[in-house]
Amino acid sequence: MKPLAWSYTGLSQFVNCPRQFEAVRVLKSVKEAQGEAQLWGEYVHKQFENRQRDGTPLPDDLAEHEPYMQTLDALPGKHFCEQKMALNRKVEPCDFFAKDVWNRGVLDFTAIDHHRAIIVDYKTGKVKPDLKQLALFALFTFHTYPQVTACYTRYYWTQTKQETEEEFLRGRIPEIWRKFLPDLQQYNEAFKHNIWQPRQSGLCHGWCPVTECEFWKPKRIK
Looking at residue 205, what is its pLDDT? Predict the structure, then answer.
């Protein structure tokens, strides 16, 4: 079976539980329900996009982020909002839905200024230390914009207005890709052999939509 084009979210779901990934994304036998947190995240992203792209004022429940929007406005260079990027199997830029697409991603905000790129990813959940998504966004940018030599990336945590920053340099592209190779090898092996092992975790307690899995249990009652 040919592997599906992957994204950071999709690969993360596979790593968390191959069985869930197969049911949701390969067989499409179950559908993930949107919780309040996910709906809120989509709402925030859309309002930030409207503000950055069209200058639409933020709604009252997000007005506290206007100073940050102004900070992004002031960045030099060409700005992009919710920019869709994709790479083919030769690791070359391609159309988002190209037949040979290998990897996809959507960058919330990017400012390209000559040899420098600033990439911002909005996060509406709790602060987490994982920077791999920023690393992947830097790779997209390096491969799409050959003149860019440095990517200054950051998560903007909307709950606390904190930022988590990381710098990536073009000369370290092979090293950055190596961060993903172990997971991608397992990903390709699962498609090749059509083997999708379940991975037990706390999410098995009612959070996973794959209710026929042997590890699934109802949500714990507090």
Answer: 82
> Of 141, 209, 196, nearest to 169 (Cα)?
141
- Cα–Cα distance for residue pair 141/171, rounded to 1 Å: 13
Residue whose entry in the numeric block shows the structure tokens 């994204």: 7
Q: What is the pLDDT of residues 3-35, one digit of tens each?
A: 999 999 999 999 999 999 999 999 999 998 888
- Residues 80-99: tens digit of each pLDDT: 999 999 999 999 999 999 99
What is the rounded CA–CA span in Å between residue 141 and residue 153? Answer: 11
For the record, the structure tokens of 33 come out as 């329900």
Position 79, amino acid: H
Supply 111's token pair: 């400012």
pTM of the shown model: 0.93
The sign of the dihedral angle between the CA atoms of 157, 162, 168, 174 is: negative
DSSP state, residue 183: H
* Among 45, 10, 44, CA closest to 28: 10
Rg value, the chain, Cα = 19
Give the Å distances, CA to CA, from 177 to 108, 181, 222: 21, 7, 42
109 in Cβ contact with 69 (< 8 Å): no
Pair of tokens at residue 213? 């899995």
Could you tell me whether strands 116-123 and 78-88 are parallel, antiparallel, or unpaired per DSSP bridges? unpaired
Tokens 């714990």 -> residue: 220
Q: What are phi and psi of 91, to 5 degrees?
A: 60, 45
